[in-house]
Amino acid sequence: MNRHAASMLAGAALLALAALPHSAWPADEAMGPEAVAVEPSSAATGPAGAGPAAARPAPDAAVDAAADATGEQITATPVTAAGAAATGTTDLKPKGRLRVLEADIPAGTRKRLTWTSGTPIEGFVVPVPVIVVNGKGPGPVLCLTAAVHGDELNGIEVVRRVLDDIDAEELNGAVIGVPIVNLQGFYRGTRYLPDRRDLNRHFPGNPSGSAATRTAHSFFTEVVRHCSALIDLHTGSLNRTNLPQVRADLRVPQVTRMTQAFGATVVLHSPGSRGQLRRAAVQAGIPAVTFEMGEPMRVQPEQVEHGAKAIETLMYSLGMTRQRRYWGDPEPVYYASQWVRVDHGGILFSDVALGERVSEGELLGVVTDPISNQQHRIYAPASGRVLGMALNQVVLPGFAAYRIGTATSKAAAARLSAPAVEDETPDEEAPAEDTEAAPRG
């Protein structure tokens, strides 16, 4: 049985991972303000001539000057592995002595550790596997997190494949992989924690807050603080699917450079929502992106392959590995996107495909009333690309059905200070305890 054919067995094995319990790793210095998550975009080719697709722009003096004037850095250029050092992709914090979860990981070794949130019920704990590969050579500490939402499975297999392909003897730097962050949600097949809260709305957390904020604080302090850079893997939510895409705050230069090394993967500028892991990491000085791919509750081989290839491309660009991956043409950067919502309830039938380029006024889909047989057509409000969409299903009025990304010119992008980008979960209300202030000390 080859490595990738063993995916299902490996997924089952993840449930059995265990190690000795550990006490809490001491907190670092005072935490900064809550950070915002950024998500990735990928690349499926739409039909020829279906609409404009701006190639990933190259930097120029005019854009850089405009960015300096607004305090924002929003240029994005394709970066080859050979040019990584020249563009500053390798300016991430280098690893020192690697001690994670009270364990020392010597250079050239691999260790499986466990993290527990410190919020057990009646004395029971749920040990979450944390795999650390410390290479022999110098380099950054790249963290890979998946299943922050327990029903999002593609990222779990991406992390497993990437970790399985790493040879600690040849690795420069280190990789910390957490395939299933929300293990309790994973067991129950839900995106949420047992207290019905979304973990990805509570980072960097609060040691004295709700169960969700305590869990977020524990994970952020004990694991994320060790990262030089972070990739948080997700899928679409609530019966939606996403084109493989990197979502990132392109106003942050280190984050922008990071997005340029994912190969032929779409990038969507998005500062992220309050409480998201990506945003919290960026605000703590850790460059981070969200990598979206596919739909929940399924393992999709094509999406997984794209995700693993993109991360391995980034690692090559960072000088961490010698394995070079080859891609086709560069994909665009989208500086704005908008959700198209249905105005009537019924059964949604889509006329467009994920990744397809659409023109303003083009038919996206139809909602049919199953009783009256009345049909309501949904049209594209602007030209762009379908970055995310609902699966065919029963919908209620107001349901977010299509996410359209808009490619803009460099000059227009430089003028954007607050792009129209909605949250990754457009139908989810922020929980009341999202208003809890994170501790500053």
Describe this structure in words.
- The protein has 441 residues and is α/β, with parallel strands linked by helices.
- The protein folds into two domains: 297 residues, Zn peptidases (Aminopeptidase, 3-Layer(aba) Sandwich); 71 residues, RNA polymerase II/Efflux pump adaptor protein, barrel-sandwich hybrid domain (OB fold (Dihydrolipoamide Acetyltransferase, E2P), Beta Barrel).
- The chain is 20% helix and 23% strand.
- It contains ten helices and 19 strands.
- The strands form four sheets. Strands 8, 9, 11, 12, 14, 17 and 19 form a seven-stranded mixed sheet that branches. It has a six-stranded mixed sheet with strand order 3-4-6-5-7-10, sandwiched between helices. Strands 16-15-13-18 form a four-stranded antiparallel sheet, with no helix packed on it.
- α4 packs across α9.
- It is globular and about 65 Å long.
- The N terminus and C terminus are likely disordered.
Tell me the layout of helices and strands.
Elements: H1 7-16, H2 61-70, H3 84-87, E1 99-100, E2 103-104, E3 109-115, E4 128-134, E5 137-145, H4 154-164, E6 172-178, H5 183-188, H6 211-222, E7 229-234, E8 240-248, H7 253-259, E9 266-269, H8 277-283, E10 288-294, H9 301-317, E11 333-334, E12 336-341, E13 346-350, E14 357-358, E15 363-368, E16 375-379, E17 384-390, E18 394-395, E19 400-406, H10 410-415
Shape: globular
Structural domains: how many:
2
**Portion in beta strands:** 15-25%
The unreliable regions are: 1-89, 416-421, 429-441
CATH class of the largest domain: Alpha Beta
Radius of gyration: 21 Å
